Protein: Kelch-like protein 12 (CUL3-interacting protein 1)
Organism: Durusdinium trenchii
Amino acid sequence: MEFAGRDWQLQIENLKDEVRALKESVITKGFLSEDFFLSYLHRIRFQRVCQQHPWKHCPDEKEVGLWSVLQAGLSKAVLGFAGVAAVGALCRASRELGAEASKAKKAVDCLAAGGRGQVFICGGYDGSRLLSEVHRFDPKANSWGSVPALPVPREASVAAVLGGQIVVCGGFDGQRQLDQAVRFDPMAGTWQELPPMHCRRSGATAAVVQGHGLVVCGGFDGEEYLSSVERLTDHWEMLPSMTFSREGASCAELWGKVYVCGGNDGANTLKEVERFNFEVGQWEALPPMLVRRDGPAAAALSGRIWVCGGFDGQQSLSLSSIECFDPHRGFWRKLRSMLSRRAGAACAVVSGQLYICGGYDGAQNLQECERLDPAQGMWELLPSMPRRCGYCAGASS
C-alpha cells in the first residue's frame, strides 16, 4: 500500500508538470492569454460545483442562477459593505450584473451621504410626462445625486423623512388619485409598501410632528376637495378635519403645531390659514395671508412660518413673493421675493436654510433651485436639478 501511494503521488506530480508546461507554452506562444485560460478554468470548476450541489427553487423546481440571487438583493448588501468603488468592478464582471449594480449604487450613494442634511425631490411633472425619479441634493458637496426611483410615477404627492426613511404618499399617476404610501429604506436600497391612506389624495400637504408622526391634510380625491386629515405612526389614523376643504395648500410644523396655508377649494383661491393644536385636538383660525396662494411652498424657519410663491388666482404667471407669519405677534409681513416665480415647487429646510426646488412659473416647469439664509436675507442660486420638475414633493433629513 505504501508503494502504491508513492506511485500515485509520482503520477500526480508528473501530471502537474505536464499541465504547467502546456499552460506556459500556449500562453508564451500567444495562442491564449492567461486571463482567458484562468476564466475558462474557473468556468469548468464552477460547472463541477453546480453539478455536485444543485440548487432548486422549491415552488416550481426550476433552476436558479447567480443572477436570481443578486436580484434578491445580495448585490445591494455586498455594495453596502464593499463601498462605491466596488461598483465599477462588479459592472465590468458581467453585463447582466451591470444594470442591477447601477441601481444598487444609488442606494449606496444615499448611504455614503449618511442620509443627513440632504434634500430629496420626489416625482413631479417635467412638462411632458409624470416622473418617478427621486433626486438628492447634498449641500456640503453642492451637487445632485439620485435615489432609486419610485415604484409608480406621480405628481402632487407629499414626502417626508420619517424614522430615517423617505416616505411618499398619494399623488396622481395620470389616471387616478392615489391612496398608496411607500417608504425608501436606504439600508435595504428598495421602496416598500406601507398601509394605504384612508383617502385618495393628490395635492395634499403634510408635515412631520415629533411624537405625532406624519400628518397629511386635505387634497383632492378625484371627486371632492377634502378637509379630512390623517396621520401615520405605525398605522393610519383619522384626525379632526380642517375648517376648509383644500387642495394645493402648503403645510409646516412649528413648536408641535401644524399650520396649513392657502390652496383652493375647487372654486376659489384661498388665503385662509388654520393651525392644529395637538394639546386640545382642535383646529383654530389664524389671520389670513396677505395674498391668495394656490400651490405655494411653506416651511418653519427662525420661529416663523414662511410661505413662498404659488398662484394668486388672477395672474397667469406664478408668484415670486414671500410672506411670513410671526406666531407671537400674530400678523403676516412681506419679505424679499425669490429669484424665480414658482408654484408647485418642492420645499425643504436643512441647517436653518430654506431650499426651494423646481415648480411651475406659469409658462414652463423649472430646473432651477435656490436657497435662503434667513440671517442674510438673501437668495442664492444653486446647481439646477437634473430635470425640469413641477408639482414635485420635497423632504429633508
